[in-house]
Predict the 3D structure of the following.
Amino acid sequence: MTERFAQEAGKKRINPLVLVGTGAGVVIVGVILALFVFGIGGGDNVKIDRDRIKVLTGDGAKLIKDGKYDEGIQKYRDALALCDKHPKELAQSKVAIKAEIDSAEKTRTERAAAETAWETLKKEYDDNKYDLKEFREKVRAMRDEHQYLQMPWAQGESQDPRENIKVMYEKVDHQYTEYLAQQGRQGFQAKRQEIIDQFHLNQKGGEDFAGAQRAWKKYRDEAKDSDAKNKAEAQIVDVNRRAYDSWNDLSRKIEGKERDEAVKLLEDTLPRFEGCSFNDVDIAQAIRGKIRTLKEG
């Protein structure tokens, strides 16, 4: 009988693991094995998946540390799928893994933004048209942020400011320090007095408002910080206001003069007002209009 059973088992390809004993013994062993294979013994499966989750999250953490965010996040997602097989037993693990995924995705987004910001900053540095004070603060803030994100250009030892943001900050900071020292030597008030003297702004009737305005505009455009630019802009407004007042005085002055004398006075005066405007009045253009009116009259 045993020989015939073995022959039948061979024909049906019965797993030899179940061929222990005969009769009822064979059935019992087969049932136990089926329970194990198909997971009815759930405790063992939880342990297996828990161990696998540990491996996956460990691999994911290493990949993310190496900057391979897409691959690392996928490892965490694979671990999350295993947690879903055991919603009760692995609920806390699922919460922790989801938190890791959210953190990794946030960092991945921040690093992508950092790469774009770094390229923009390098271009701004090369163009050299920035407000020195504001740009210095911008570089400092980006340096600190990119060091936290462990970006390559915030970690290396290169002395090229286009490869190392720490070196870029040191150079910009040095420029700013030198600029402040220069401003301390020259000083805004010294520049103001220089322009007043050069363009006779304290000589009533002889002020060169056009020249003073050009000088202040040049100073403003060459200034490396917003404070100096704002002060220069205020001086430009003041020069234009004074030019407007002077033009009103001149208008009253020519009222009692002969036409030819008035025209000559205006023509001689015109160059001092070129480029000046105030209260939406182009002063040089107003003088030309007055000259034209006198000549036509």
